[in-house]
Amino acid sequence: MININSLHIKNNGKTLVDIENLPIKKATALVGQSGSGKSLTLKAILDMLPSSLQKSIKIEAPFKLERGNTLSFIPQNPFTALSPLTKISKQFFAPEAKAKELFEMLDLEWRIFNEYPPNLSGGQLQRVIFAIALANEPKLLLLDEPTTALDVKLRDEVVEILKRLQQKLNFYMLFVTHEINLASKFCDYMVVLKSGKVVEAGNTEQIINSPKEAYTKLLIESNFANREFRE
C-alpha cells in the first residue's frame, strides 16, 4: 500500500490542503465537490504545483515515486492532452514494439499510431492517452477526472478499460472524480475530501451504503441524482 502520511499546501499563508493519512490502495477513488483539493493533491504527488504555492509532503511507498518512471498521469481532457499537429507516433515515447503491445491490449487499430489526434474519436483518443501513460509500466497511475469530457457510453467504456488494465498490469490507481457512481464500479476504496481535508475514508461499498458524515451523504445523494453537489 502507498500512504500519504501528510500533505500541506498553502497560498500566501492560506491553507488549501491539509491532509494527514491518505491511503492509496490498489484502486482508490478520491472524491469531493469542486474546489475540495482533489486536483491539487494529484499535482502535489506529481510535483507539478505552481511555484507560487508552498508544499510539504511525506509519502510512504514500496517503491520510489518518479514521474515518467514509476508514476504516470492521465489528465482530465483527452482532447487537449496531445498536440493536434503532431502524429501519435511522435508523441509516444516508447519502443514501437511496446506501443503495439499496448494498442492490442486496448483494442486500438495499429493504423491509429500514425494518425493525428483530431482524426480520432473521443474513445480512441482516451485509449491512446492510456497507452502513452502506461508505456513506462508505472506502479502508480493518477487520473484527474478522466471521464468528464466523455459521454455516458464512453465513460462506462473507460471503467471497463481500467478494470482490465489493472488486472493485467497490477498497478496502484488513484482516481480523482466527483462522479461517485462511476468510481463505485471499480474502486474498492474511497477517500472523501472536503475543503482540503479528509473527512471520511474506507471501503467504497460501506461508504456509499452507510456514510458517517453528513457531507458524504449529501455528496452521494446528489451524485446518484446526476448532479454535482456544491455547498
Q: Name the average pLDDT.
A: 91
Contiguous helical run count: 7
Helicity range of the residues? 25-40%
Q: Would you tell me the structural class of the helices and strands? A: alpha/beta
- Which word captures the global form? globular
> What is the architecture of the largest domain at the second tier of CATH?
3-Layer(aba) Sandwich
Give the DSSP E fraction (strand runs of 2 or more residues): 25-35%
Main beta-sheet annotation: 6 strands, mixed
H and E string:
EEEHEEHHEHEHEEHH
In angstroms, what separates the terminal alpha carbons?
33 Å
CATH topology of the largest domain: Rossmann fold
Outline the low-pLDDT stretches.
227-231
Q: Please, how many domains?
A: 3
* Rg: 18 Å
How many beta strands in the DSSP annotation? Answer: 9
The CATH class assignment of the largest domain is: Alpha Beta
Strand arrangement across the biggest beta sheet: 5-6-7-3-8-9
- CATH superfamily heading of the largest domain: P-loop containing nucleotide triphosphate hydrolases
